[in-house]
Amino acid sequence: MKRLQEYPEKERALWRTFDRIPFEAGSVAEGLSDAQVAELLDAAT
Fold first, then answer.
1. Sequence spans of domains, the chain
2. How confident is the model at residue 26 (pLDDT cuts 50, 70, 90)?
């Protein structure tokens, strides 16, 4: 397995992508029912 730090140009490109697109603006899942969301969030705890 190769480590990302062995490819500094690729690591820089990844970090630039994260700078342009905030994590919070992304979508993790779409089209879920209320029950599915509650299950994924583990709302009971």
1. 4-41
2. confident
